[in-house]
Amino acid sequence: MNAVRTGVRWPILLAAGVSLVAIGCTERAVLEVDSETAPGQSTPTTEIEIPVQGMISWRDTTYTGYVVPLTSPYRVVNDSADVTSRLLARFETIPDSIDVGTIQQPIEAYSSGRFRLLVDTATSVIPEAGLELEVFALTRAYEERDATWSLAALDEPWTEPGGDLGERIGALRIDAPFDSTTSDTLFVPFEVSTDSVLSNWASSDGEPGLAIRAVGAGSSVDVRALAVTFEVKPVGQDSLVPAARSPAGYTVIFDPETPPPGQESRIGGLPSSRIYLDFELPETWEGLQLKGSTINAASLIFRPVAPPPVPFRLEDPLEVISYQLLADPFEVGPKTPIGGVLGPPDLLDPEDLTEDDAELQLSITPLVLIWSFAPADSLDVLRIGVQASPEGRSLGFWEFGSAEDVTSLQPSVRMLVTPRVPFRLP
Amino acid sequence: MNRLKLVAALLVGSASTLAAQAPVTSLGLGYPVAPLDARAAALGGTGLGLIGGTLSGRNPADMRGFARPTLGITYAPEAVDVKSPGESQTTGRSRLAIVQAVVPLREWTVGLSFTAGLDQDWSVSLRDTLQSSFGDFPFDERREHDGGVSMVTLGLARQIGDFSVGIDGSLLTGSLRQTFFRRFEVAVDDPGRGVGSASGEARFSWSGFRARGGIATAIGTRVRLSGQIGISTDLKATRDSAGDAATYEFDMPLEWSVGGSARLAENLLASAAVGYADWSATADALEGGAASDVLWFGAGLEYVGFEVFGAKMPLRAGFRRSDLPFYLPGEAQLSETAGTFGIGLEVGGGRAAFDLGVEIGTRGDLESSSVEEGFRRLSLSMALLQF
Fold it and tell me: Any chain B CB within 8 A of the CB of A13?
């Protein structure tokens, strides 16, 4: 009996003991402190930078004209020592008849004409002496895609640079400070016969158009929207009917004109510029195997040159993106089709760009990673485009060293590389 | 260009803990697992010439110890304390030590078994920071080996006069998967910036053959003696994962062992065994490790004096010591010592048996071999007799 009683307790003690031992049998990784002495095989992650001369090939260029004043939201009328700019527009849809009830009646006369401008008061500058906003009829038609300060159209210069201004249609005096507490909308009344101006525009589809300028040293008026409002008198009617129209051919011309890109690579500006480049990475660099290795990170490095002159010097930070080009940009040209974006945007801050050793670092990791593991000869040349995002918001741009510059300014590719682990048995 | 800054010391202890915390399964070809059932494990890891039969795979001649068809399985997890100066980390390992079926056919006995041979499972993790012009990125690194060498053994034993004679042949098989994974966190000073992870993997297949011969005999009714000797072909490893093809060959040892048991009294059994393996021949093939010969011995006592609901419940205790074949170059060879104990329980009128063995011991010595582990192994065996 004694033995049996003793034995009955054993299973309980045994179960407790087994449980305690089993709890400690969970497999978990041993935490090590030193990569060199820890067991197993590893490989370091190494940072390298490959200059243009280290590439099998490298080409870069700047293409311009992706966003032009016609397609840009930049609608600033300037009168400053650095830049003078004017808005050009046409009112192509001035009506010659109007619905009165269910009847379409010809218009007998136009009256009470004025231009309505929606102004960004936060970015506009009204000098202490105030300014005058003037609207002129142009005496020469312009081609909005090609119009510049000196050209009315391609190969057709203005008689006077800045547009051939004719009769002043309207003007508005704006005193500083601008009172935006009530409204951001300005009305520039016609100084001349509304009927005369609008009848002409109605019969000529708005040609040759108008120009808006600011007069007042240091003034800058950021126009977000423009319209003309007026009243019409239908034939046989005594009452006046209010009407409004928006312009077409709406563009901006400025002086000085944006200098064309030279040897340097350019991002931004108006017309906007992009850097297109292609290069072939070596399979090894300073003894480090690149092809077949994990590329943890890869970036294009651009080094800024001296800032461009005012007004083309970038004033506000600009986001820059890089993306894959889907064809050879040196064969297809500016219209090379673009692929996916290669990384998050990098901020181009003009304050940082003037510091010593400043650089623009743009991620191209996905493309280089694909290159690393791509079969031989399937992806030799990496083609990349770099641009501001969004483009054409201001006249400002920045330039960087290209492959043709001195070595210290040339671009390069910086990478974090983890080579393949050479798994071996002990 | 880049510098690796050691910050892990802050996470795992003092900065003085720079010695490697190498699990023994990471040394050489791994940790040799003895083919023991729970009864043999509790009796000091003997397993040779045990009166009453053993489902250990020490000697094919011992299969004659079973008068009835028998199927046994032994599962042997262990908790491990991997030690470094002033520090210890607990992990665990799980092994299916042996599965064996024995079928007596008149004077013949046929056996088929699966045994763990070399345990190569381990994993370590590191924490560090990569400093680069892209930013400073903390990272976790994990290195892992998963697999080992197992043996599938077909054995044959025959009674010749007073002697049991056995032979067996074992296919050495299995695989080893090596993995490496480094995961970077976002930059310390810019949570919006990150870099990609890195990983790698390789797989090797093991192959080889081992042949053994053994003999056992009873001296009267109270003593049984047993001995065996085995030789192996080279252990071959073939890399079968993508990448560079590679083949490795390792000398495998000539092994012998002898042992036996004696019934000292009606309820008291003593067992002892000793063995040897010339693993030093493997040293030449090891690039990053050293190997030396192995001598092992163990002894134990079994007392059958308790019953539970009418079933016998033997109590066992023992001690064992064994050299371990693989160690770090330039360091001392490791040895393993353990105190053992356990119990058994026969149920179903002897148709089934459950055994439990517990081994508590240490391996290596931090000062002399730079590797040390404490362990608590639990062996659980279940046998179906006349299945």
Answer: no
